[in-house]
Design brief:
Layout (H helix, E strand, L loop, with lengths): L1 H12 L8 H19 L7 H33 L7 H8 L7 E3 L12 H10 L4 E3 L7 E5 L1 E7 L4 E7 L7 E6 L3 E6 L1
Parallel strand pairs: 1-2, 1-3
Antiparallel strand pairs: 3-7, 4-5, 6-7
Helix pairs in contact: 1-2, 2-3, 4-5
Amino acid sequence: MAITWVIFLYASSNYPDEHFYSHRKIRLWFAPILLAIASLAYLNFTKTFHRILALFLAIIIGYSIATNLYFNQRYLASKYGSERLLSVADTVAIINQIPVGSTLCDPAKKRRRKERGQYDYIDTFMTKRELKITNACPSGSYYIQPKFKMAIQMNDLFPIFTLVKTPPLDRPMTSLLETPEAYLYKIE
């Protein structure tokens, strides 16, 4: 087991930085936690130095657990909390309120999304309302504005998920529908 662990640690530590992905380094990050826990079994707790070392290791492990729980809670709250992202089910419910054959404005419909946007997929395979989806946002088209969007910040270890309010589209619009996750507007 130790030889296999060393091989995995060696492989994980040699990925080039330009191809850094967190799942490739996870074995490397997990090693200190596992080795710290394993070292607690071999400490002699009658000696003062070993007690201090055990307390230090327990604090570090507790901090690691608390940090992971905090970031997991933030991620789960962004998906399932009261202030959450727009889900596919929410999008389907809103699109079903738009008249058949209407134009739906999607400013994010650029580059690769020109052919494979989220609304294209939902309308083609789920709602089948034959919407014309464009990024031009002409007058009379409909616009779905999620209340929140995900701002992903990367640090050296893992992404930090934060919800931010979606800025409004800079066009005169009439509000048609408000759900807990989004607004449906008609562009004037």
